[in-house]
TrEMBL record:
PANTHER family (alphabetical): PHOSPHODIESTERASE YAEI, TRANSMEMBRANE PROTEIN WITH METALLOPHOSPHOESTERASE DOMAIN-RELATED
Keyword Metal-binding attributed: yes
Gene Ontology MF terms in the entry: metal ion binding; UDP-2,3-diacylglucosamine hydrolase activity
Family annotation (InterPro entries): Calcineurin-like_PHP, Metallo-depent_PP-like, Metallophosphoesterase_sf
Entry keyword Hydrolase: yes
Occurrences of domain Calcineurin-like phosphoesterase (ranges): 60-222
GO terms under biological process: lipid A biosynthetic process
One Pfam family here: Metallophos
Domain of life: Bacteria
Keyword annotations from UniProtKB, A to Z: Hydrolase, Metal-binding
GO cellular component, one term: membrane
Protein name from the UniProt record: Calcineurin-like phosphoesterase domain-containing protein
Species of provenance: Tumebacillus permanentifrigoris
C-alpha cells in the first residue's frame, strides 16, 4: 500500500477557490440581509404643502401605513400589534391604512381586530381594501370596523376643526373591486381639501383630473427587491410608474404619496428596500 502524496495547490487553484468562497459568502450575507431587512422598519417623515388645506389643519400629523400582508412572510397579528405600538408612539392626528391588511388568507381575524382596536388617533382611523384583501373581503371589513377604523369603500368622511373641514375619501380596490372616484367624493363642496386613499398608485394620472389635493397609496412595496444603480427588479400591475415617495402630478397642485409598506409578497424578503411607516405633516400654504 503506497502512501498518498498530497499535491500542492497551485496559485491559480488557490485564487479560484478563494473567489468562489468569497462569492458564496457574499450571497449568504445578501440572503441574510434580505431576510432581516423585512423586519427593519424605517420611520419616514415627509412634509407636504397643500394649497387647499384649511389653516385649522396646518401641521396635521397623518401616519400612513400600508401592505402589512398579515399571514404572509412570517408576519402575524403579533407583528401587526408591534407596528401599531410604533404608530401610537408617534401620537398621530390621523391614521390612514391603504390596503392589503392580509396576505389573501388569515384564520385569526379576531386577533387582527384586537390589534387594530389598540390604534389611537386624534381625528380618527381610516382604511381601504387592497387586492390581497378580497379573498376575505367581508372579514377584513369586519376587522376594520371592530378595530375602530372607518372603512372607506367609495365614500368619504369629514373631519372638523375650528369650523373648518377636511375630507378623507377612499376607493374600493381597482384590480379586484369596483373603484368609483365620483361616488367616493360625491356631495363634497368643490372648495374643500380632499385626501384620497387609493391602494394602487398608478391610478394617480386618472385621479389628477378630479379636485383631489393628495392621494395616499401602497401596493408597490417600493419594489421590495431593489438593485443598486438599477432600482426595483419587479413591480406589480398598477404599481410600476409611481413606486415610492412623493410626486407632484399635473398643474393643479395634486400630489401622490406612495409608501413602501410593511409586509412582503411572494417571497418574505426585502433588499435595499426597507419597510416603512410614513409620518406626513400637512401644511397649509394659504
Amino acid at each position: 500500500m503506497h502512501p498518498e502524496i498530497e499535491t500542492p495547490m497551485t496559485r491559480r487553484e488557490f485564487l479560484r477557490k478563494g473567489r468562489n468562497w468569497t462569492l458564496l459568502a457574499g450571497v449568504g450575507l445578501a440572503g441574510a440581509d434580505a431576510l432581516l431587512e423585512g423586519h427593519w422598519i424605517e420611520l419616514r417623515r415627509v412634509r407636504i404643502q397643500l394649497p387647499s388645506l384649511p389653516t385649522a389643519f396646518h401641521g396635521l400629523r397623518v401616519v400612513h401605513v400600508t401592505d402589512t400582508h398579515v399571514g404572509g412572510g412570517f408576519f402575524d397579528a403579533g407583528d401587526l400589534q408591534d407596528v401599531i405600538d410604533r404608530v401610537n408612539a408617534l401620537d398621530p392626528d390621523v391614521v390612514c391604512f391603504t390596503g392589503d391588511l392580509v396576505d389573501d388568507q388569515y384564520d385569526r381575524m379576531d386577533d387582527i381586530a384586537r390589534a387594530l382596536g389598540t390604534c389611537k388617533a386624534r381625528y380618527g382611523k381610516y382604511a381601504i381594501l387592497g387586492n390581497h384583501d378580497f379573498r376575505q373581503r367581508d372579514q377584513v371589513l369586519q376587522a376594520f370596523t371592530e378595530g375602530g377604523f372607518e372603512a372607506l369603500v367609495n365614500r368619504s368622511v369629514v373631519i372638523e376643526a375650528q369650523g373648518q373641514e377636511l375630507y378623507i375619501a377612499g376607493l374600493d380596490d381597482f384590480l379586484k373591486g369596483k373603484a368609483d372616484v365620483e361616488k367616493a367624493i360625491a356631495g363634497i363642496p368643490p372648495d374643500r381639501c380632499i385626501v384620497l386613499l387609493v391602494h394602487e398608485p398608478d391610478l394617480a394620472d386618472r385621479i389628477a383630473q378630479y379636485p383631489i389635493a393628495l392621494q395616499l397609496s401602497g401596493h408597490s412595496h417600493g419594489g421590495q427587491v431593489r438593485l443598486p444603480f438599477y432600482g426595483p427588479i419587479l413591480t406589480p400591475s398598477m404599481g410600476k410608474k409611481y413606486v415610492e415617495g412623493l410626486f407632484a402630478i399635473g398643474s393643479n397642485g395634486f400630489q401622490l404619496h406612495v409608501s413602501r409598506g410593511i409586509g412582503t409578497q411572494t417571497l418574505p424578503v426585502r433588499f435595499f428596500c426597507r419597510p416603512d411607516i410614513s409620518v406626513l405633516t400637512l401644511e397649509s400654504v394659504r
